[in-house]
Amino acid sequence: AGRSLLVTAGPTFEAIDPVRGITNHSSGKMGFAIARAAAEAGATVTLVAGPVHLPTPRGVRRIDVQSARQMLDAVLPLAATHGIFVATAAVADWRPSTSTEQKIKKDGSGQAPTLTLTENPDILATVARLPEVVRPWCVGFAAESHDLVRHAREKLQRKNVPLVVGNLGPATFGRDDNTLLLVDAEGERELPTGDKLRLARALVAEIAQRMAAGA
Ligand code: C5P
User: Fold this and answer.
1) Helices and strands: H and E segment counts in the chain
2) Which residues are 63's β-sheet partners?
3) How far is the CA of 202 from the centre of ligand 1 (A)?
4) Phi first, then psi: what are they for 172, rounded to 5°?
5) Is the pTM of this model over 0.90?
6) DSSP E strands, 53-209
7) 142 Cα: distance to centroid of ligand 1 (angstroms)
8) Is 203 in a helix, a strand, or coil?
C-alpha cells in the first residue's frame, strides 16, 4: 500500500508490413494478474501492455503499445516516478530491420523475400541501468523451456536486478495457472502451481516484504 508499481505485460508485435508481423504466444495474463494484485494491495499501478485481449484491472492505468520500441518509449519516462518495476512482457528479441508501408506482394517468381532482423532494446536492462536516484526496484521474469534455475540466476546477474521470477514458458503461455520460482541473491523459493492471480498475490506479498526490509 502506498507504493507505485509499473508493469509490462504481453507480447510485442514487430511489423513487417501493414498486415504482417513477428510476435509470440504470451497472453499477458501473468502481468495483468500482477497489476490487479498490486492495485488490490493498495499500490498505484501503471500497466504497459502489448497487444493482448484482456480487460484492464480495476483502478489500473493502462497504456497500450505494439512494438518493443514503443514499449520502451512508454516505460522510460514512467520509471522514475514508480518505486517498483515488474517486467513480465515477452518482448520480441528482434524486429525486421525495415518495415514497408505497403503490403509485400508475391511477384510470381517463386522467390521469398529475405527478412533482415535488428536486435530490440532490452527494456528491463535499460531501466535497471538508470541512476540509483531514479531507478525503481526491478523484478525480471525468465520464461525458459529448460534449466530454469541456471537461466534465471544468469539473468539476475546479466540484467543486474534484485529478483528474477522463473517460469516454464511453453507450459504456461496462454494458460490460467503457472508455477513460479523466485531467484535472488539469497537463494531460490518456489511458489507452487496455482492460478495466476493467486501467484500474483503471493509475488506482490514477496515484493512488499522486500520493500519493507528496505531492499
Ligand atoms: O533476456 P530475456 O528476454 O530472457 O529476459 C526476460 C526478462 O527481460 C523479462 O523480465 C522481460 O520482460 C525483460 N525483457 C525486456 N526487454 C527485452 C527483452 C526482455 O524488458 N527486449
Assistant:
1) 6, 12
2) 48
3) 22
4) -120, -25
5) yes
6) 61-64, 84-87, 94-96, 117-119, 137-144, 163-168, 177-184, 188-195
7) 7
8) helix
The helix, strand and coil proportions of the chain, stated in percent and rounded to the nearest 5, come to 30, 30, 40
Read off the pLDDT of residues 26-48 as tens digits, 9 standing for 90 and up. Answer: 899 999 999 999 999 999 999 99
The β-bridge relationship of strands 137-144 and 84-87 is parallel
The per-residue pLDDT for range 140-171, each reduced to its tens digit, is: 999 887 888 999 999 999 999 999 999 877 77
Test site for ligand 1: of 24, 91, 182, most ligand atoms within 8 A of the Cβ? 91
How far is Cα 157 from Cα 145, in angstroms, rounded to an integer?
20
pLDDT tens track for 90-129: 999 999 999 889 999 998 999 999 999 999 999 999 999 9
For the record, the C-alpha cell of 68 comes out as 518493443
Residue 178 bears catalytic tag: no
Residues near ligand 1 (Cβ within 6 A)? 8, 68, 87-89, 91, 120, 122-124, 140-142, 155
- Report helix angle 29-40 to 196-212, nearest 10: 50
Q: Where are the beta strands (DSSP E) in 72-162?
A: 84-87, 94-96, 117-119, 137-144
Examine the pLDDT at 173 and tell me if it is beyond 80: no
Shortest CA distance to 161 belongs to which of 180, 146, 182, 191?
Answer: 182
